[in-house]
Amino acid sequence: MSIAENKNTLNTLAPAWENPKVSKTPIEGFRYTSSEFYEKEWNQMWTKVWLLLGRVSEIPFKGDYQIEEIGVESIIMVRQEDGSVRAFYNVCQHRGSRLTNNTKGTTEVFRCPYHSWEWSFDGTLLSVQDPEDFLQGNPCEELTLAEVSCEVFAGFIWVNLDPDCQSLKDFLGPLWDEWSAYEIDDWSRVLRISTTVPCNWKVVQDNFCESYHLPTVHPQLADSHEENYAYTQFDMATEGHNRMIMMGATPSRALRGENPDLPNPLAERMQYWELDPADFIGRVSEVRLALQEKMRELGVGRGHSHYPNLRDAQLTDSHHYNLFPNCSLTFSADGFLLQRMRPDPSDPQKCFFDHWYYTKNTELADSATNIELTDTGDLQEVIHYGEQSMGLIPDQDIAISVMQQLGLRSRGYRGGFLSEQESRIRRFHDVIDSYMD
Q1: What residues are paired with 382 via a beta bridge?
Q2: What are the backbone dihedrals phi and psi of residue 5, each rounded to the nearest 5 degrees, phi first?
Q3: Fewer CB atoms < 10 Å away: N or C end of the chain?
Q4: What pTM, to 2 d.p., does this model score?
């Protein structure tokens, strides 16, 4: 069967999304280097979209708070008396000082370090120095913290800086139902690394919007995934998000031949699901479907209560989602990798990169996902780029992103020449432009 025939007949791993047409406009280098473009992007796009910021499990009790930085803004997310979560700008309404430099904690009041104004975790101003000395009247009767729109979904805290924003569910579109099926609200984070990177945030997201680089940059994935794009399903949503479904639990036929050897991680996964690897010597291509059958048969009894919600492909295949604008989530049956890019507050050629992994079952995580887990748990590990390894795959991705940023600065770059399997990159930039227009 030809590649063209494969593209038409094998990409049926899931019902297709809307797949709007993409433009043919070149993606010029100034989008990654220009301070003017950066400012316009911040004011017209970043402040209008829902942003994945916090995790509700990290603030379980009244007064627990978590703070995230996004661009020039700092956002406080805090658990309320009634159990809800609200979000506020981390700025005192007196003279503009940050209320706190902590990243998380528990408090009854936020006390401004400049003049000791005290704010309740519900945004109420409780006390000020010399309240009688204000011509406008007592500030406690006039002021509250500036609140931002906040919703909770899939165990995450989402905020939108636009007071007139659409609902989170409408913004997420097809992602809402797909992610709900996994029941990830209480999955545990077992890997948490963040680093500064000398490239524009879009360079990294561009990389995650295509699989064309996998055989070159990540050749090791051919042991566990079908890397031939003709066997891969690509989708784009009208809301701006993208999806790629890559067949897993199978070595790549394109790179390993029709009957490759059985890799050890896959053999270990088979044994967990009571399949004998010796039975599949010479017919490794049959492992994927056999695993799906066994996972259906044994999954619920082993505590995988969400398996009935999943399609067969979701049991074995990598479902990679590009959440607009700045997150990449790769789901396996029992875990997901979350990679988030945030713009530097002032330099368009720098960004902040988060590399986190969440799982329901640590016993399966290594063999199913190629993620090397750590025991850091909730300990935040922040490194500067090049100080130490983040793991093989993120090291590979970030190294090539840094090299690309150097080329994008060149006057010799003419805007790219994209393959069809890179259409999700063009769509990503089309959506950015739709906000900026």
Answers
A1: 194
A2: -65, -40
A3: C
A4: 0.92
Tens place of pLDDT for every residue, the chain, 437 residues?
Answer: 333 444 443 446 999 999 999 999 999 999 999 999 999 999 999 999 999 999 999 999 999 999 999 999 999 999 999 999 999 999 999 999 999 999 999 999 999 999 999 999 999 999 999 999 999 999 999 999 999 999 999 999 999 999 999 999 999 999 999 999 999 999 999 999 999 999 999 999 999 999 999 999 998 888 888 888 999 999 999 999 999 999 999 888 766 666 677 888 899 999 999 999 999 988 888 999 999 999 999 999 999 999 999 999 999 999 999 999 999 999 999 999 999 999 999 999 999 999 999 999 766 554 444 555 544 444 456 788 888 888 999 999 999 999 999 999 999 999 999 999 999 999 999 999 999 98
CA distances from 63 to 85, 106, 149, 188 (A): 10, 5, 19, 22
- C-alpha to C-alpha distances, 279 to 19, 248, 272, 276, nearest whole angstrom: 41, 19, 15, 6
Give the C-alpha separation, 14 to 316, whole Å: 13
Structure tokens at 184: 């990830």
Peptide bond before residue 325 is cis, with ω within 30 degrees of 0: yes
Distance, CA of 368 to CA of 364 (rounded, Å)? 6
**Structural contact between residues 329 and 337, judged by C-beta atoms closer than 8 angstroms:** yes
Lateral strand order in the sheet of 327-331: 233-236, 242-246, 318-323, 327-331, 335-343, 351-359, 188-197, 381-384
